[in-house]
Amino acid sequence: MSTLDTKLLIAETFINLVETNNTDKVPISAIVAACEKNRKTFYYHFPSRNHLIAWIFRWDIAQQLEAHIEKDCLIYKRHDPLGFDSLAYYTCIKSGVRTIDGRPFFQALDACLCHRAHYYACMFADNSPDGLPNYLFNLYSPALLDDIKFILSNRYLKEANQRFLADFYTGAALAYFTRRVREGHTTPLAAEIGAFDNIIHDSLAEEITRQQRGRVL
């Protein structure tokens, strides 16, 4: 069995246990027993349970992104502290000089979460510092900050203001997707929000432009 096959076996076993028991509190002992592996094998592939949870998300989102978005538009986290460098996690699709099309990414994120809605609903219940919600916030706030810098181009905005925008919109987006998963929405994201399907990046561009005009006036 290849390394990837073993990781997928452990991951699928964990997911099944979470969904069966309706809880995110599944111990490593239960995982290794169910997949007929030992702790040494588990820790060889995943240093911790939280590492496994993060890997499952990164694997899931990478599959969605790579299946629907051109490779040149995919973003990888280089020198990832968890070692996930080869897994795409975000996109950069420039639709103008200072505009970004975020729709394909958010549609992929929605498909990723809805594909395992019960599992992710359980994972989103863990608000500890090492839980999945905090991992996603820390993963995507810097990514959105890079988008903000692109939208700004050569215009000035205080670093503190840029970080505020990145944190605010990341938090808002994650809260929305958490609610969708918990409430069991099945309607595709694009069909549900219609003309507002690029609201994050359109709103960022509008707010930045409004702020810049205020500085000039």
Automatic annotation (TrEMBL):
This is Transcriptional regulator TetR C-terminal Firmicutes type domain-containing protein. SUPFAM superfamilies: Homeodomain-like (SSF46689). Pfam families: TetR_C_8 (PF14278). Residues 115-200 form the Transcriptional regulator TetR C-terminal Firmicutes type domain. Transmembrane segments: none annotated. InterPro entries: Homeodomain-like_sf (IPR009057), TetR_C_Firmicutes (IPR039532). The lineage of its organism: Bacteria, Bacillati, Actinomycetota, Coriobacteriia, Eggerthellales. Coiled coil: none annotated. It comes from Cryptobacterium curtum (strain ATCC 700683 / DSM 15641 / CCUG 43107 / 12-3).
